[in-house]
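Holo model, FNR. Inputs:
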Amino acid sequence: PPLENIINMHDFEIVAKAVLPEKAWAYYSSGSDDEITIRENRTAYQRVWFRPRILRDVSKVDWSCEILGVKSSLPVYISATALGKLGHPDGELCLTRAAANHNVIQMIATLASCSFDEIMNAGAPGQQFFLQLYVNGDREITKKYVQHAEKRGVKGLFITVDAPQLGRREKDMRMKAVDDDAGAEVQKGQNVKKDEGVARAISSFIDPSLSWKDIPWFKQITKMPIILKGIATAEDAVLAYEYGVQGIVLSNHGGRQLDTARSGLEILIEVTDALKARGYFPDPKFEIYVDGGVRRASDVLKAIALGAKAVGVGRPFLYAFCSYGQAGVERAIQILRDEFEMNMRLLGARTISELVPEMVDASSLRAH
Ligand code: FNR
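Output:
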């Protein structure tokens, strides 16, 4: 269908499923095991209700914000998704170009099909990026990669901490990985197992021995803010704060890692409660993000009302560029903007800072 007929994020998924080669669809859409967590990522948002306020002069509403001190036109960043060229010949560059035109921050994946420098070079002057890091067993490789990113001006290092081993994504595993140009730069020249799906074929370098003890090392090799991506409990959120990182992403990796792990939104309340109890929240030097299952601006507003600084969106932008290239991503951003405008007016919040916990009824999450 023509792009004008796409009116929400779900539409991009329907088109992507129809147009993508089977292998790409399997890799992008799959979750681990029975995909219970993927389902939960959506249903958690549907259990939280709004408590809108009225008569507040909402003629002007503003949903722009700062993420790690970087200005963003939306309280949403493009989360890292690997292997963009499986779905579009320009791969991640579709995201980069669209993000430039709309002032949105892109998180570059270690396993992007396009190399880090290709993506940075495609950026507009002043365009801001984050980097997602998979930590290599060979720390020298990781150190070089991180320091290069810092030199090129990346504004935040998101270390993925929920993937010491890749989840079993069965749809993907039924497809044999084959050599093609979608391969991630980082794994060229490495020996990879090709009989367990795309994901496992490209991830063999990830170090499962990574631990809290490595955090001081990261702080020593870079001045970039460090964010741990894939926190799933209040206990680990507290540890992250005490280890002095600048933020956490409450995430289950889009349902692709531990199946029946909870959704990021569900964790948010226990995390803010635990941090508050210790005097760690709110703290402008420690930001909390949520990702997984965000498909509407209303989802974003719920997470922010409950304490998130911003949210990450993965598959919707991926499906948008697989179906329509850069224009698809721009449309996705535009749709979100329209949704922000309407939802903030109806909710009675003129700015992001007016989104307070009292604007949502999250009692069904608290009951857990
Ligand atoms: C991911 N995600 C991911 N995360 C990460 O830290 N490193 C990675 O290489 C990838 N790769 C990746 C590939 C694909 C195809 C998907 C769908 C996801 C997880 C991603 O950053 C984010 O956590 C989720 O995508 C958020 O969930 P939604 O928005 O896809 O529902």
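The mean pLDDT is 94. The pocket of FNR is lined by residues 27-28, 41, 79-82, 109, 111, 132, 160, 229, 251, 253-254, 256, 291-294, 312-315 (CB under 6 Å).
Archived with the compound record.
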